[in-house]
Design brief:
The chain has helices spanning 2-19, 24-31, 35-47, 116-131, 168-176, 185-196, 256-259, 261-273, 280-285, 291-300, 304-328, 347-357, 360-363, 377-389, 392-395; strands at 22-23, 51-56, 66-70, 77-83, 87-93, 104-107, 138-145, 149-150, 155-156, 180-184, 205-210, 214-220, 223-225, 332-336, 367-370. It is an alpha/beta fold and 412 residues long. A 5-stranded mixed sheet has the order 6-5-4-7-10, sandwiched between helices.
Length: 412
């Protein structure tokens, strides 16, 4: 009985984190559990201080129901780490999805960097110290990163492979003294879109991660689809390019060599070298941040060369998306990740490619949208890893709060 109650407690915790304030009736509907059962569990969460009253739900004609949310004053935190091939970001969230300390971003190259593991651990340690957070108050660390990741074994087969006996997840857990969960960056972004963003409430969605490379997270029947070995979604290696450029995977013809932000940056540099005028010439000469971010900023400010470089990459990405639509027939395509900062500049070239290469009957019920989560999607996906994989006891440690809030009556 206690096990069932613990699972229900975790289910309610997740619903409140993902959805914000909900009433007992709404929790009952989402969990398919009876109102008395939900009332009993919610009473425990309120008494333990993990939930508080939020206010009244909108009127549906009768008495307005009381809604409840997680208590952000509880000293329980989620550490989110978002990595790409060059930049790593760290932030800690409370139970209300609020950052409790400013996000930090720093250069951490993953390729050919034997010190990457130690550099990552030192950066996390420093962040915890600077945030003045007790390590025992951190429920766990979720790390979203590029590479072929076996979630079950906690192994990244592409990076951090210098220890053949112990997987990356277990090495980090031991080194940091925290429960650690790892996931492919594009899959984590898809999870964030499913719980917080443009895929919420939908069942079949393709989430495209436009970054230094091009990634894909697949939502099938309302859940993340990983494939047989967990490596599904290598969208960028579909052989659509007609160039002879060598991809990072060692093959030729991959879409990524024509469609990524890294390629867009290189194309912009080539255009400048050929005499084209652009604000990027000054920005690339003395960069104050990554060249990809400079390219995005310049495009948003109307720099024609930047817009052209991004549009060319987005058109090739749209060609790949047309392939996805033919195979998966999704309800929605979400353009997310770092590239989502470009906003609606992405949509016209992507839609043009879809219109050119897609069978109209297949695409007429598929919408294409730019993520509202943008660059935060990977961080929110990292948080979701902790919530999904933690036990009820880990999520709701009894020693994290002060004096309990005593509740004598729960109104549903």
């Amino acid at each position: 009985m206690k096990i069932r109650q613990d699972h229900l407690k975790k289910a309610i915790f997740k619903l409140l984190y993902y959805n914000g304030a909900l009433s007992v009736a709404e929790l009952s509907m989402h969990t398919n559990k009876s109102v008395p059962n939900i009332t009993s569990v919610m009473g425990g969460l309120l008494n333990d201080g993990y939930a508080v009253e939020h206010g009244l739900a909108p009127s549906t004609g009768g008495r307005r129901a009381v809604t409840y949310r997680l208590n952000k004053k509880i000293k329980a935190y989620f550490m989110a780490v978002a990595m790409d091939q060059f930049i790593t970001r760290i932030v800690v969230y409370n139970l209300a999805k609020e950052a409790v300390h400013p996000e930090t971003a720093f250069s951490l190259p993953l390729q050919d960097n034997p010190e990457a593991f130690q550099q990552l651990c030192v950066a996390i340690d420093r962040y915890i110290t600077s945030a003045n957070i007790k390590r025992e108050s951190i429920i766990g660390a979720g790390i979203a990163m590029p590479g072929f990741i076996d979630v079950e074994k906690g192994v990244n087969a592409s990076f951090f492979t210098d220890d053949e006996h112990t997987g990356l997840r277990d090495r980090l857990t031991h080194r940091l003294g925290l429960p650690v969960y790892i996931e492919n960056d594009s899959s984590a972004i898809a999870i964030a879109e499913l719980h917080f963003g443009s895929a919420k409430g939908l069942r079949d969605v393709m989430v495209v991660n436009m970054g230094w490379g091009i990634g894909l997270g697949m939502i099938v029947n309302g859940s993340l689809f990983r494939g047989h070995n967990g490596y599904a979604g290598e969208f960028s290696h579909i052989p659509l390019s007609h160039s002879n450029k060598l991809c990072s995977c060692g093959k030729r013809g991959c879409m990524e060599v024509d469609a990524s932000l890294l390629v867009a940056v290189e194309n912009a540099k080539q255009a400048i070298a050929e005499g084209n005028t652009s604000s990027l010439e000054r920005l690339f000469a003395a960069p104050t941040k990554s060249e990809g971010d400079h390219l995005i900023d310049a495009a948003r400010k109307g720099d024609q060369l930047a817009i052209t470089a991004i549009s060319d990459a987005a058109f090739m990405m749209g060609k790949g998306i047309a392939t996805l639509i033919h195979i998966m027939n999704p309800e929605r395509i979400v353009l997310s990740g770092r590239g989502a900062a470009i906003g609606k500049l992405l949509l016209p070239p992507v839609q043009r490619a879809i219109n050119e290469f897609c069978i109209p009957k297949l695409v007429e019920h598929t919408t294409v949208v730019v993520s509202d989560l943008g660059y935060e999607a990977e961080l929110l996906g990292a948080v979701s890893l902790i919530i999904e994989n933690s036990t009820p006891h880990q999520l709701m440690k009894s020693n994290l709060h002060g004096k309990p809030q005593i509740v004598t009556k729960l109104i549903s």
